[in-house]
Amino acid sequence: MRARCNDIDAAWFEVGRGEPLVLIHGLGDDHRAWRRTLPDLALRHRVILYDLRGHGQSSLGDADRSLRQLGEDLVTLLDAIGLESADLAGFSLGGTIAMRVAIDHPERVGHLGLVATSSRVGRAAADWYRQRVEMVDRNDPQLRSTLDRDTADVYAQSPDEVEEGLLIRRQSTADPRGYGNACAAMAGLNAAPLDPELGAISARTVIVASEKDQHCPPKAAEIIAA
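^ that's the sequence the OP posted. Answer follows.
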């Protein structure tokens, strides 16, 4: 299904019955990143999945490279679907979007699930994001191979999932401008972390982290919880 959200056409999908739960995927992915969680979640929830601005089947629109815009896209999607509020669960980039929405629109968030995500970005990580923004901007011929290597790195702990991960990410970033937009939004968390605003989150929140996660270690979850 598609919904007009601000200046984009957002692709969204739903499965299951029960209280609404919106799943927000990570950088370079699309709604299919949640495919393994759906059988259990759909038993007790009306699960809503969508593709972020410029990812998958959602259009790019007038992207301003901000986390706030990505958050407002989600709020407008809730309006289009007719939901006054919903539980939110976000992975990585999706978690930062979920936090942004919970800060800016607390009345729209029931419960909050933050998975392998961070409220801040260090200088090295910010440089990593900026390098990929620059590659997108200059249409670098090495971008595709770089994205493939990044994907393989993400799935290093689960090599049996690399093939599916590559399929999703190659399709979702066929037009890489949405990926570049999201990278810029994440890089912005270096100069303007969410930390000072996290106290405004009123939703009951669960934070999930793993010691095996080489990209977002448990320390990031501890910072959010604190």
